[in-house]
Automatic annotation (TrEMBL):
Cellular-component GO terms for this entry: monoatomic ion channel complex; plasma membrane
A Pfam short name: Ion_trans_2
Organism, as annotated: Haliscomenobacter hydrossis (strain ATCC 27775 / DSM 1100 / LMG 10767 / O)
GO molecular function: inward rectifier potassium channel activity
This protein's name: Ion transport 2 domain protein
Domain Potassium channel stretches: 72-153
Record-annotated Inward rectifier potassium channel C-terminal domain positions: 160-310
Localization per record: Membrane
Spans through the membrane: 62-84, 125-151
Keywords: Ion channel, Ion transport, Membrane, Potassium, Potassium transport, Transmembrane, Transmembrane helix, Transport, Voltage-gated channel
SUPFAM superfamilies noted in UniProt: E set domains, Voltage-gated potassium channels
């Protein structure tokens, strides 16, 4: 008799869960923020990744960090020069101690950047040794800063605009879930693909279970992306949205996780973008207003109109059964 016959078969895993699993079951809890970041707070352990942090931080933070480090480095070396003695440097003023320190601070800046105007120069052994160490450190710092700056500029990153709201709109003879996207940059993205997964909560005996379903789209891929793209999921009998009212949708707490990927010809690399919509971001029985028009032989795309919606009716909408 086989020993394996008495063992229970493990439950089949949901291949549509995108890696979130089915245990995140708190009502109102979001899986993915609208900016594409995960709604996850990491605690317990921490690892220092300065390169990743500096490359991914906003430009304003990066510039402030570089400026702050430059001022701090010059301030530290100015203190060390001052401790060696202002008399160990030619050209330092004979006025107040504050003027002497200021002269040494600007001498540090000239040494760190290897400018070397020559107005102030070291004449003692320790002053010359410290100045040479700062010059070496300056070469390394600016080489590192140049590398970080290049990494930030050369990092492939898409700038896909998502509409603020998703809609449940009349579509052909029924309804459809839809949202639209546009390329904020004036570059070429080709072979753009979209994947939409719906996550919702089901209650059973007072416990919630999160379900996932990959929504079939009317069109999952476009070869070119010069205008906006309205991504549509037709609601039929196979859709988890089929037959749902506003009240039913609110109870389900659905979240629509969006994954967009394509090939950026500027960077010659694949790029991606992600976002999500919750029930609070849904507008039932509305339609998007046009974003582009023709003028003088050209097509004008108005990116600031990506969020404009016309609500068709205010009453409760029951999706067809």
């Amino acid at each position: 008799m086989s020993l394996f016959k008495s063992r229970n078969r493990p439950p089949q895993e949901d291949s549509n869960d995108l890696g979130f699993g089915s245990k995140l079951n708190a009502p109102g809890e979001r899986l993915l923020n609208q900016d594409g970041s995960f709604n996850v707070l990491r605690t317990g352990r921490w690892t220092w990744t300065p390169y990743q942090s500096i490359v991914e931080m906003p430009w304003s933070s990066f510039l402030m960090l570089m400026l702050g480090f430059y001022v701090l480095a010059n301030f530290v070396f100015a203190i060390l020069f001052y401790l060696i003695g202002p008399d160990q440097f030619n050209g330092v003023g004979e006025d107040s101690e504050m003027i002497k320190f200021a002269d040494l601070f600007f001498f540090s800046a000239q040494t760190l950047t290897t400018v070397g105007y020559g107005h102030i120069s070291p004449r003692g052994f320790w002053a010359s040794a410290l100045a040479s160490m700062e010059a070496l450190l300056g070469v390394m710092i600016f080489a590192l800063a140049t590398g970080l700056l290049f990494a930030r500029f050369s990092r492939p990153k898409s700038r896909i605009l998502f509409s603020k709201n998703a809609l449940i709109s009349p579509y052909h003879e029924g309804y459809a879930f839809m949202f639209r996207i546009a390329n904020l940059r004036n570059n070429s993205i080709i072979n753009l693909e979209a994947k939409v997964t719906m996550a919702w909560l089901e209650e059973s005996h007072g416990k919630y279970t999160r379900k996932f379903f990959a929504l079939p789209l009317a069109r999952e891929k476009v070869n070119l992306f010069p205008l906006n793209w309205t991504i549509v999921h037709p609601i039929d009998e196979n859709s988890p949205l089929y037959g749902k009212t506003n009240e039913a949708l609110e109870k389900m707490q659905p979240e629509f996780v969006i994954l967009i990927s394509g090939y950026d010809e500027t960077f010659a690399q694949n790029v991606h973008s992600k976002s999500s919509y919750t029930y609070k971001d849904l507008i039932c029985n509305g339609k998007f207003k046009p974003m582009y028009y023709e003028e003088d032989g050209h097509t004008v795309l108005q990116l600031d109109r990506i969020d404009e919606v016309e609500v068709l009716a205010a009453e409760n909408v029951a999706l067809p059964k």
